[in-house]
Every structure is written in structure tokens, then in C-alpha cells.
Amino acid sequence: MTKSIRSSGLLALGNALVEYRTTRGWSQRELARNTGLRQSFIAKLEKGLRRVDVVELVVISRLLGVSAVDLLSVVDAATPQDHKIQGEG
User: pTM for the complete prediction?
Assistant: First the structure.
């Protein structure tokens, strides 16, 4: 049985990234080129299918003209207090 990493926090982060990226007028490909990440990574991140490293989040946020703290606040607000981390453990 495959575990999904999708969570309300990751989905909220993805939605916020789409909003900031499109406000800038960038495609996923342009954001990928400017970050050095693959377009497929950006697509999965925006769909809540991919986790992001803290340093990657800082780089992405700077390019999008938003604070990483603001993006983390979106995740925090969308993550239930009783959320448990699902991992391989």
C-alpha cells in the first residue's frame, strides 16, 4: 500500500506558490530555470505531491518576491494541530 505525502499543508503551499508564480507572470518552466530545479519538480510541488527542502523554499520564495516565513505561515495555518507525520519508520 503506497502512502501519500499529500497533506493540507503541502496543498496550501502548492496553491500559494501557483498564486505567487502566476502573479509574477512566470510559467513553471521559467521558475524552474531561475531556481535551477526541474520543471517536473515545480509541477509536483505545486500539486502537493512533493516535499521541499528548507533551502529550496528560501530560494523559491526570494525569486517569487515573498518571504519564506510567509509561505511557512500558509503551511502552518493549513496543517491541523493533531497532524501526524507519515514516514517510513
Answer: 0.86
